[in-house]
Structure to design on (116 residues):
């Protein structure tokens, strides 16, 4: 089955930046055929959709939740089976475990902690 592995999380100060990576393997199709979403789950809260890197055939290339629009930017490298989430101007509200998702497949998540 498809495997997703997130990396790049860590501890960062208020206003700082992090770049998360999601590497896909064991794909059934070309990586460009997959829409990859980023989600996050903050302590005590439900899972929240963050961003989309659409499949090559998708009508729009990217999408963002209102909470991160203008601060987070998603990109992908299909040759490397990688999707990235550049996170800027981080606040403590962005503290969460971040997951990448492709359909029914999920990674294990990477912790992002923003100190005030």
């Amino acid at each position: 089955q498809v495997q997703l592995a997130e990396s790049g999380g860590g501890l960062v100060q208020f206003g700082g930046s992090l770049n998360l990576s999601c590497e896909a393997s064991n794909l059934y199709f070309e990586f460009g055929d997959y829409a990859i979403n980023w989600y996050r789950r903050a302590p005590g809260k439900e899972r929240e959709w963050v961003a989309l890197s659409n499949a090559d055939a998708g009508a729009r290339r990217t999408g963002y939740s209102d909470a991160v629009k203008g601060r987070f930017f998603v990109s992908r490298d299909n040759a490397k089976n990688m999707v990235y989430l550049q996170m800027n101007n981080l606040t403590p509200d962005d503290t969460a475990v971040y997951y990448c998702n492709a359909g029914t497949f999920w990674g294990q998540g990477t912790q992002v902690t923003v100190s005030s």
Observations:
- The chain is about 0% helix and 50% strand.
- The CA atoms of residues 52 and 59 lie 12 Å apart.
- The longest strand covers residues 18-25.
- The chain has a mean pLDDT of 95.
